[in-house]
Amino acid sequence: MTLKKATAYRLSDNSKALLIFYFVIFAVMLSFILRTTLFTSSNYGTLGGLDASSMIFIFVVSLIFAESFKMLQQNGCSRKTIFLSFVYSTIILAVVMAVVDSLTAMLMDIITSNYESGFFQIYQARYQSMRSAQHFFEGLLWYVTAYVMMGAIGFFITNLYYRMGKLLKVLVSVGVPVFFVIILPILSNLTGGAIYEGIKNFFDFAWGFSHGFNPYFSMVSASIFSVILGGLAFLLIRRAVPKQ
Amino acid sequence: MKGIEIRNLSKSYGEVVALKDINLKFGGDKIYGLLGRNGAGKTTLLNIISNRLFPDSGEVLVDGETAIENDSAQRKIYMMGESNFYPEGMTIRQAFRWSQRFYPSFDRNLALSLVEKFSLGLDKKMKSLSTGYNSIFKAIVALATKVPYTLLDEPVLGLDANHRDLLYKSLLESYQEHPRTIVISTHLIDEVANIIEDIVIIDQGEILRNQSSEEMLKQGYTVYGTAAAIDNYIADKEVIGFDNLGGLKTAYILGEVDNIIPPELEVTKLNLQKLFVVLTNRRALK
Fold first, then answer.
1. How many CB atoms lie within 10 A of CB B75?
2. d(Cα B224, Cα B251) in Å, to the nearest integer?
3. Which residue from A63, A72, B73, B266 could staple onto A77, CB 3.0 to 4.6 Å apart?
4. What percent of chain A has pLDDT over 70?
5. What are B13-34's pLDDT values in tens digits?
């Protein structure tokens, strides 16, 4: 009962941002349609990857944690309920956005041939066209798992920062970029590029690139990442206390 | 078992001990005064009951079930804390709507009538509220929620005298109409002295006193008269404090009232604040 209300609160909290987000996205798309189909026949290039914006959106809304956490605590929600409300609201948001993005991609392909979704750009070797049923349904599933994973990443990061002290925050904020920009290239050089090759192979496998661009590999990988990050986020939130 | 039961509760912040093996019960339709000096452990105790903080050891039971990480127990509690936990961009109207969803017992009509009494705008956002109006908003939700256990931590923070008076009246009206357990944690002891039925004094993380207001005030009395008459009367008494005004003097005395009181002296009830000060000071001196 409380979980249902907490989930409703989370969804309501995100709804205004979601409406603004799609208003901007549709405005961009509409201006693109007008430019390419109505006013001129000249080639303006292609528009694509707007679904990547959806990933960034769901990542960003998942980062906003402290306000919801306090509001739900004020209204008698346990941390377990708060965590589950984040999980459910993220999944619902991911499904809604996946449906909207899949339909939009198909519609854009019908209206203007100059649009390519991010999903199609990655996995186009597998599909004849963006209008095929296979593309639509596999794309839909792919979006859901990818969006949930982005939500899990955001939720994990925000929980991690919420639980850390000032010193640890600084160490992580500096340490992570230093690791990726300085230490990892050095280590990779020392191993004759084996580390980068290993990372590339891992992602090629995880995203299905090494298996004929099979999106199901990516869906399973994203789901596993989501479960791992969600589990870690739960460990962090279960002892969290509201901060002033 | 009905009520909030606190068993062997301890909590420390690093080296600082906030609560030391506390055993306590808040129950029945009563208004409790949770009194203590700054840093005595009042807020920590209320925060643990309302599941905002975790104890180091011990347990809190609400009607027999644990209060820690338990939605069904927490549904029976509304905690008005010193900080506002509502989102900054939320309006009063939206906050009422969500309170109604989370607490089905939320009395919207009462909330609206209190909003009018306190001249609080329904479309005001949390971030635009002054400290006083922040307290008023939180107190309105706390009173309108009508859950079995209402915890008020410094409910009159930032309120002017008129609003404080109005809030106490509203609290009593709400309590009379819908009796429940209300715990008020405050520094303004004199102001709540006439409202509270039971008193819990917490000091240095321990329960110093837990008794009815009446019993506590029976521990002594107040005498008032000319300075000379008072000085003469108190010679063999345990005096816990004085007030002087011109040639007149008030003495606060521990012990039973004498059978014979000099006619030039006036005897009244003991002052709760004076008693509180002497009890907590004595402990500090030990």
1. 20
2. 7
3. A72
4. 97
5. 999 999 999 999 998 899 999 9
B126 close to B55: Cβ distance less than 8 angstroms: no
Inter-chain touch A67–B88, beta carbons under 8 Å: yes
Any B CB within 8 A of A102 CB: no
Let me know the angle formed at the C-alpha of B128 by B126 and B133, rounded to the nearest 5 degrees: 75
Residue B57 lies in a domain: yes
Q: What is the DSSP letter of B260?
A: S
Distance from CA of A71 to the nearest CA of B (A): 5
**Chain centroid to CA B99:** 23
The residue whose two tokens read 């909030």 is: B4
ipTM reported for the complex, 2 dp: 0.90
Asked if the C-beta of A185 comes within 8 angstroms of chain B's C-beta atoms, the answer is no
Judgement on whether residues B193 and B232 belong to the same structural domain of the protein? no
Other beta carbons within 10 angstroms of residue B118's beta carbon come to 19
Residue extents of the structural domains in chain A: 2-163+207-237
Mean pLDDT for all residues in chain A: 91
DSSP, residue by residue, A176-214: HHHIIIIIHHHHHHHTTTHHHHHHHHHHHHHTTGGGTS-
